[in-house]
Amino acid sequence: MEKYEAIIIGGGACGLMCAAQAGMLGKKILLIEGNSKPGAKILISGGGRCNYTNLYTGIENFVSENPKFLHSVFNQWTIEDTIHFFEERGIKGKEKTLGQLFPITNKARDVVKIFTGILEETRQTLWLNSKAEKVTKTEKGFEVLVYKEGKKQTVHAEKLILTTGGLPVAKMGASDFALQVAKQFGHTIVPTAPALVPLTITGKEAEWYAALSGNSVFCRVYNDKIEFEENILFTHWGLSGPAILQISSYWRAGEKIYINLLPKHDISTLIQEERNAGGSRTLKQLVKPFFTNRFLEAMAGIFPMDIKIASLGKKKEREFAKWLHTFEVIPAGDKGYDKAEVMRGGVNTQELNPRTLESKKTEGLYFGGECIDITGWLGGYNFQWAWAAGYAIAQDI
Ligand SMILES: Cc1cc2nc3c(=O)[nH]c(=O)nc-3n(C[C@H](O)[C@H](O)[C@H](O)COP(=O)(O)OP(=O)(O)OC[C@H]3O[C@@H](n4cnc5c(N)ncnc54)[C@H](O)[C@@H]3O)c2cc1C
After folding, report:
1. Nearest-10 crossing angle of helices 267-276, 314-325
2. Which is the closest atom of ligand 1 to the Cα of 41?
3. Start-end ranges of CATH 3.50.50.60 in the chain?
4. Half-sphere exposure in the Cβ direction for 171 (13 Å, CA)
5. Which residue intervals of the chain bear CATH 2.40.30.10?
6. Phi first, then psi: what are they for 85, rounded to 5°?
7. Tens digit of pLDDT for each residue in 148-200?
8. Would you give the distance in Å from CA 84 to the centre of its chain?
9. Closest CA to 102 of 58, 57, 46
């Protein structure tokens, strides 16, 4: 029987990086992946283009009960390390917006190819179509029961690394395996939920949103914790778009979020300037440069948009300013794990060594990537975490 120094369960971003780095250090690894191809989420990420890091990654871009936990791993593997790692192997990055780096070729599969190439060169063992079902602690390490192409097999190693990701998108192989194993070994789990996920609107207002379906507006979306300035997208079931996905990670059921629909201007100042110029333009003409016709029609259902500014009373002006700058939304819920980009919550960081990601409860057991209570913003942060975690574990095993 082959002898492995470590078994990695989960051949996604973190598991691939971990296996590749371990291979380059001369360590013999078995990487077990349930899908027929490694890196399924890398392949679909960023619309098939893979936003593989963010130039401005910092711990403030992560949701966690303990974001400071990231310091040690991020000191070991930096943005420059990610850029260098991919550049050295032929992927040059190009920044799209807000520090988001994509391969210049726009092909996520180039990213996966780098990892499969390293695994081959370093003669690592990759089992595809292989689902880990059970982990048992043995005297010398761990035994893993695997269904490999439907057949039962057991494998052993001294060290075991769980990189099975989070719960989003079951059809891509997502599972709660890491969370189950963590619980088995006495770890606590920070409650999990979909994150970077669209939000739904139901009830009377739903129709108003549905009428705007397809309209994208540059906004500031905020709550009492955080704000994001990016586009929102109206849909026939609610709200999506980058700013909504971002705030969804900070939203809890029943809470309100607020939208400043005109974040770069103060409507009261614009109205005053128009008044000073005679006030002959209507409210609609004043805001027309900033919104689509459909949005203006939707506004007209609420405010007298054809009124001349000269005749606009102070009360109506205040109401309009409040509506435009602090548009209130009470989402009914979110679109769930199938539409979420990541999971928030996960294995409690307090019970992991922050440098190595080894369990403080069981020697030789490691967790990496999305299964840990570390959730990045939209924009390449989640991969930066997955790469860095994979690297840190590989140094220790
Ligand atoms: C649509 C979409 C787009 C995204 N785009 C981006 C982006 O552009 N930039 C970014 O930074 N992040 C993006 N993300 C998030 C990113 O993909 C994840 O944060 C990242 O892949 C997590 O890495 P991971 O290794 O922890 O888990 P994963 O990459 O999810 O890998 C886990 C692997 O474990 C396997 N597995 C699970 N259970 C078992 C088992 N029992 N046995 C064997 N194998 C198992 C799964 O099949 C999977 O391949 C996106 C996510 C989605 C859903």
Report:
1. 140
2. 17
3. 4-193+343-396
4. 4
5. 199-334
6. -55, -50
7. 988 999 999 999 999 999 999 999 999 999 999 999 999 999 999 999 999 99
8. 23
9. 46
> Who lines ligand 1 at CB under 6 A?
9-15, 32-35, 40-41, 44-46, 50-51, 131-132, 163-165, 168-169, 173, 175, 177, 341-342, 369-370, 380-383, 386
Tokens at 164, concatenated: 């099975």
237 contacts 200 by C-beta, under 8 angstroms: yes
Residue nearest to atom 10 of ligand 1 (CA): 380
Atom of ligand 1 nearest to the CA of 13: 25
Class of domain 199-334: mainly beta
Please provide the CATH number assigned to the domain covering 4-193+343-396: 3.50.50.60
- DSSP 8-class letter at 246: H
Q: Is 11 within 8 Å of 39 (Cβ atoms)?
A: yes
Give yes or no for a contact between 388 and 395, defined as CB atoms under 8 angstroms apart.
Answer: no
Write the DSSP symbol of residue 203: S
Burial of 144 (0-12, 13-18, 19+ CB in 10 A): buried
Cα separation, 57 vs 79, whole angstroms: 7
Amino acid identity of residue 168, one-letter, is P
The reply to whether the predicted model has a pTM over 0.90 is: yes
Angle between helices 381-396 and 13-24 (to 10 degrees): 40
Q: Which two tokens stand for residue 70?
A: 């990231």
Burial class of residue 7 (count of CB atoms within 10 Å of its CB; 0-12, 13-18, 19+) = buried
Residue type, 106: N
Q: Express each pLDDT in 353-381 by its tens digit.
A: 999 999 999 999 999 999 999 999 999 99
Helix H, strand E, coil C: the string for 121-179 is HCCCEEECCEEEEEEEECCCCEEEEEEECCEEEEEEEEEEEECCCCCCCHHHCCCCHHH
